[in-house]
Amino acid sequence: MNHFEQNDEIYLFDSANGAYAAFLLADLIEYAGVLTAGDEDRLPKVWEVFRNWINSKRDPIIMRRSFLGRGAFRKSFDLPDGRVAFIGLFDAVYNQSFRNSQSAPIYPISYHNIRHAVSVDERCTDLRPILLGSQYAQNIQEIWFSGAHHDMIGSLTSSCNPWALSHIPFVWMVSEAMKAGLHLYRGVIPISNRKESFENDPFRVLEGDTVDSLDFRRLLSEASMGALHDALSFDSGWSTLTVLKRRVKECLISSIHNGSDRLFAIRGSPRKVPPGAAVHLSVLLRVKLDPNYRPSDVFNTPEQLEAEARNWTVSRIEDNLVEGFYI
């Protein structure tokens, strides 16, 4: 709020259960506007009015009436309008408070661009993803990528492979944000996550006429084969104690929800990829390069892969591998 100016567009990014906070903040901005520097004393009153509006979501008529009357509220507080132009989410999962909810806890009001990169390999049942699907009227893309939850949010790397699995969804997200109007300084956010600098301009991967270069194909291949950190496996980069804790937790959750016959379900449960979901090209590339990699809810055998591939539709924009995905 100290740097906001009138007519600024706001871009929000978050991951894991921070998606709830991102949607809540976006709703606050859309409803109440943006407090400027020196207006901190108004925050309690603004929050009280906004919280009352959030609670009115149980009654759609009251909610709509309150939202349409927000102009008078802004005028009384002299709050400048704020527009959320883009929300980018990395493997959004349910907040503990919304574990039993069947839909996203917060419904965005009027943002036009929402992008969500989802993990196809996570098996922990307490990391159930928030799938936006088609419940919103805005421009939404929800793409499934290789990697477990912690791979997707970029919290783990491997010394054996400098390209983390988070690299591909990160490049995709940056590309989508830039298409939505975000301007980045080339030296501020490097596309490469190697310790040494990438020898070529990292922003070349976002340009349609160079995305199919040999350098980028090598990058895509290496990133697709990055280490997968399965929190329920001992050979995936986690400490033995961490894996044991996760397995015990998985057993307890499984026994509570499925009965005593699932008490020793230490392998978790694969995520359900809904029909018509968009799967990134890098997932198919990893399947092609690694005969042991088979996302269990996408395809289990090479024969099933071959049969399923005939029914999938490729979606590319100017043959751009960053934006390419299968449905």
Automatic annotation (TrEMBL):
It comes from Aspergillus sergii. InterPro entries: Tle1-like_cat (IPR018712). Residues 1-176 form the T6SS Phospholipase effector Tle1-like catalytic domain. PANTHER family: PTHR33840, TLE1 PHOSPHOLIPASE DOMAIN-CONTAINING PROTEIN (PTHR33840:SF2). Pfam families: T6SS_Tle1-like_cat (PF09994). This is T6SS Phospholipase effector Tle1-like catalytic domain-containing protein.
